[in-house]
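Could someone model S-adenosyl-L-homocysteine with this protein?
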Amino acid sequence: MKEISVEIDQNAPVKEPERQFFFMEKCKEELKKQETELGRKLTANVTTFGCQMNARDSEKIVGILETIGYEMVEEEDADFIIYNTCTVRENANLKVYGRLGQLKKKKQKNPYMRLALCGCMMQEDVVVEKIRKSYRFVDLIFGTHNIYKVAELLYQRMMTDRMVIDIWKDTDKIVEDLPSERKFSFKAGVNVMYGCNNFCTYCIVPYVRGRERSREPKDIIREIEKLVADGVVEIMLLGQNVNSYGKNLEHPVSFAQLLQEIEKIEGLKRIRFMTSHPKDLSDELIEVMKHSKKICKHLHLPVQAGSTRLLKEMNRRYTKEDYLALVDKVKKEIPDISLTTDIMVGFPGETEEDFLETMDVVKKVRYDAAYTFIYSKRTGTPAAVMENQVPEDVVKERFQRLLDEIQKISAELTKEDEGTIQEVLVEDEDSQDTQLITGRLSNNLLVHFKGDKSLIGQLVKVKLVECKGFYYLGELAED
Ligand code: SAH
Ligand code: SF4
Ligand code: F3S
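Reply:
Sure, complex below.
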């Protein structure tokens, strides 16, 4: 779907990323004109909904907007507002419509105000139709495959007076080397792959993010080397299913091999990754994690459900027994591993027996943390038309039982580490008490302790003095 296809500048290079740098310059000139008229700088804000993929995409958008000359501010003060949307569950969509309603009045008052929508929701035709009809004041709509084009699209909008819509159904294009802004100075997310090929029957991600595409190892390594030179000590490798990384490259590389290459980067201290699909977790990866000095001993291994029958309906391609055997293997090889998961309650046809199988997995695995979701029907996915959708009251009651069990177990596990000394990456000043700083353990839990904020970005040893359920109070330990 393309609202405007006119060539907006004959001189624009065809090659990327040069073409986008050209449009960044063009936008910059326009912005300068507007600033002179207004007598002040123009401001922008990107609000991110959804997962870490979206968070990373937003950093890329911010990088481009800053290059153009926008000053990034809070949403209330912004002339250019961008919502990077998520559609994994219905309430993610509702949030966006709610906020859009409020923006209409604001926009009427500020003639310089621009509004863009991008991200996963925009990959759905029904959403774009609805916005086109009912939210005419939106300036720019683009999707997940062409965020690198934000400068070009913005320039189109500047040159015309119509809503610009550019959505691609899919892409095999990966554009490297565009500006990007980071939220933290010492840690960063790095995409290793885009898209997903798994088509779990409840999930909309493959439809809105397209087919799996892996980045070349050399591009990933180069990006991380640059980040490290810039002060980053921890990276999070991102992909919907990192365990299938590299299979479709011209010269196939496994995720475990990629990790080994990344490990060699001097100055990099910690490596994290997500998400691991249980069906693709290899012995090679377990082996690499076991011997690594840098890979955090944390594995996010979404189970979704415990019943083999439901797992089949979900197209997860493992059984309850496969999953439990995998967990046993991981725990045996890496005894101090911290396991986390995603669990869904209320998938169509879920019976009390099915749910008890989920509870059984939770009790057997003993997760350090679990993200729990109530099944949400996504139009266009196979599960949306399955019979026996589970009544809301039944789902809510099961969801509560599951939460109680998970919390009980994770509190017990957190308690077990009380008194130990662990390595912590200092991330921030404490938001409640300025005497304290906050850091993250290898297993992703937080610890608050007395210290100077000059330690932010450094790895320090901390004694976990008191467990507070899901976090610790600690004190700096002598080396
Ligand atoms: N690629 C990851 C998950 C990405 S989506 C994986 O395969 O594990 C993050 C989580 O959202 C999923 O693990 C799932 O638990 C949840 N989720 C996805 N679709 C959902 C839906 N329709 N309703 C409720 N939760 C959903
Ligand atoms: Fe969705 Fe499944 Fe792909 Fe994860 S692996 S993004 S749950 S389809
Ligand atoms: Fe949402 Fe898109 Fe992520 S649908 S969960 S933002 S991939």
